[in-house]
Amino acid sequence: MLKRTIRSHLIYAALVLLAAIPLFYFITQALCLQDVDEALLERKKYLVVQLTAHDDILSQLPWHDLNNGMVIYPAITSAQAEKNITLQHYNTLNGEQEPFRELHTHIQIKNKVYPVILRISLIGTEDLIQGIVITATLLMFLILGGLLWINRVQSGKIWRPFYQVLDQLQRFTLDKKPDLRFIDTDINEFKDLQQVSRLLAERTYGTYLQQKEFTENAAHEIQTPLASMQAILEVMMQNERLTPEQSIHVQELQDIVTRISRLNKALLLLAKIENKQYSEITLLPPIPVIKKILKRLEMQIQLKEIIVSENYGDCMIRANPVLLDILLSNLLYNAVQHSPEKGRIGVATLPGRIEIANTGKTLTFSEEKLFRRFQKSQNSQPSGGNGLGLAIVSQICKTFQYTISYQYKEGLHHFILAYKGG
Amino acid sequence: MKILLIEDEKELRDSIVRYLQGGHYRCEVAVDFATAQEKIDLYNYDCILLDINLPGGSGLELLKIIKGNKKYDGVIIISARDSLEDKITGLNLGADDYLTKPFHLAELDARVSSIIRRKYFEGENIMTFGDLSIDMLSKSVAVNDKPLDLTPTEYDLLFFLIINKNRVVSKNAIIMHLLGDEAEWLMQYDIVYAHIKNLRKKLTDSGSNAYIRSRYGIGYKIDVR
């Protein structure tokens, strides 16, 4: 912004300067000419006085007085109008063209009219004009440069509070209580800016805390009745007089409670990710995380007799540890869930890339819908996923600016996670 | 064994009390902060089940009071808050365990008995059920002094059923117990069926009098012939 204001000032000043230099030149020149013309007229008056006193010269006409730059011609009958002209005469002495100012006029002595040319060299004036213009130009550049320099130094000082506010606001994050420290300034606008920024930061943080609290309360409010329901069902199960049909209902209700609870947790997780409640980021090696998750999945993998091929290359990823675990868990659970019995799962890491693939039938819906919430496959087992697994994956990727893509190749579903760095 | 349950949700409270009584615990209840504080001051408990959001104050404050009193009551936090920070806060304040709602009563019982065992049976690591003797330290089981070869998962399953003896343990509770909180994404009963099948076979082959009854596909109960 500073540069821009300076730039427009600079452009304006340069334009004025450019216009001023020729203007200055012409004005000085005009003034000089006027001066010279006045001098010529003075000389004419003097000549008239001289000639009236010593009229013997009038008999030797035309009379050239080169020293004084004067030519008097013999008398004529009709007088021409007076005029001033600037001429270039050849100076034989130094072999250069020299500018002269001439007054073509006539003088009247004893009822006779004599044409007269009076001449003054302009060399002195030309030099004067040049000197003045050069000095003026120099002065103007000096003023302009000085102004520019002062402006830069001064504005740096004046705008310091502004840049400091900007810097503090850029560093402001929601996961920490705002602690904005501003330098003292006596400029009212900046004082206002500091005050408003502080107010805004505090209010934003307050809203964020409220939202966080609401999210937590919502979890509590839903999980508690679910806990009651689950507990009641477990007590009911102990009743020896339950008929087989009632038992089945109890089981179904148990499953439903589990599903609602998981759904609730997943939605809360999504909300928390969106609220940036996991913004703490470190550089992590993803391979141990993958191995840990595969260990957790060991039972399911054995049961389905899935063959897992692991292919690890060195890599590091910038992530939040909790979210990275959730992200990779979801992808790996997804692979196990949708892999048929005796299927294959492939896990590969490369710098900047993690690939997870599993065997399976083609999708029953379009690929774009894959990462949408509550999108379920017809092929997946009942009471399997909650339709949020990949939506969570997508949300986490969005948060950390990873890209997740899907491909179906040679009977394998490929999920490719690409990230910067690594 | 005396347990204090501090929980404001009536239905949950009643169910927990009924279930734990089936495991031969004596269960007292407190429904709000003030009652809980009074009971903590007056009596000693083997285990305190503590909800965090209570009418009149936070369960974490109660936890500070319990630990401040230099009492040796075991404490299990039962809370709907499932964030890592909440768990860490609770455990740092001296809670022995943290259970997130909704939980299975069978799991709660297992955690309670684990705390009570730690408190009372220090050094004594053998538990018996029928002709089974379970060494909790080495996590091994013997039938009439003959070792029973079990995988770690089968041991966990058997132990879980024995802790919850006299009661039917649901398939959901078993799966959560075996896979833990983190692996709750998959509800595959196949895992339960497979492990129960193997465990039954091993028990029968060993000639043990302990056997696993199934209840119409809801769950399982361990019994002695």
Proportion of helical residues of chain B: 40-55%
Q: Which shape of chain B, going by the Cα principal axes? A: elongated
Strands ordered across the widest β-sheet of chain A: 1-2-5-4-3
> What's the CATH class label of the largest domain in chain B?
Alpha Beta
Shape of chain A: rod-shaped
Give the percentage of residues in beta strands of chain A: 15-25%
* Spans where pLDDT lies below 50 across 5 or more residues of chain B: none
Number of strand elements of chain B = 14
Poorly predicted spans of chain A: none
Helical content of chain A stands at 40-55%
CA gyration radius of chain B, whole angstroms:
18 Å
Number of strands of chain A: 12
| Helix count, DSSP H or I runs of 4 or more residues of chain A | 8
How would you write the strand order of the largest sheet of chain B? 2-1-3-6-7
The largest β sheet of chain B comes out as: 5 strands, parallel
Overall average residue pLDDT of chain A: 83
Determine the N-to-C terminus distance of chain A.
36 Å
- Derived structural class of chain B: alpha/beta
Order of helices and strands of chain A: HEEEEEHHHEHHEEHEEHEE
Features:
heterodimer; A: 422 residues; alpha+beta; Heat Shock Protein 90; 3 domains; five-stranded mixed sheet; 8 helices; rod-shaped; B: 225 residues; Rossmann fold; Arc Repressor Mutant, subunit A; 2 domains; four-stranded antiparallel sheet; elongated
Q: How would you describe this structure to a colleague?
A:
The complex is a heterodimer of chains A (422) and B (225). With 422 residues, chain A is α+β, with helices and mostly antiparallel strands. Chain A folds into three domains: 2-142, no CATH class; 189-274; 282-418, Heat Shock Protein 90 (2-Layer Sandwich). In chain A, 54% of the residues lie in helices and 19% in strands. Chain A has eight helices and twelve strands. In chain A, the strands form three sheets. Chain A has a five-stranded antiparallel beta sheet. In chain A, a hairpin with a 2-residue loop joins β9 (344-350) and β10. Chain A starts with a helix and ends with a strand. By secondary structure, chain B is an alpha/beta fold. Chain B folds into two domains: 2-120, Rossmann fold; 126-224, Winged helix-like DNA-binding domain superfamily/Winged helix DNA-binding domain (Arc Repressor Mutant, subunit A), CATH 1.10.10.10. Chain B has eight helices and 14 strands. Chain B has a five-stranded parallel beta sheet with strand order 2-1-3-6-7, with helices on both faces. Chain B has a four-stranded antiparallel beta sheet with strand order 8-9-10-11, covered by helices on one side. A three-stranded antiparallel beta sheet of chain B has the order 12-14-13. The longest helix of chain B has 18 residues, at 189-206. The radius of gyration of chain B is 18 Å and the shape is elongated. In chain B, 40% of the residues are buried. The chains are: A alpha+beta (422), B alpha/beta (225). The interface between A and B is large, with 49 and 47 residues.
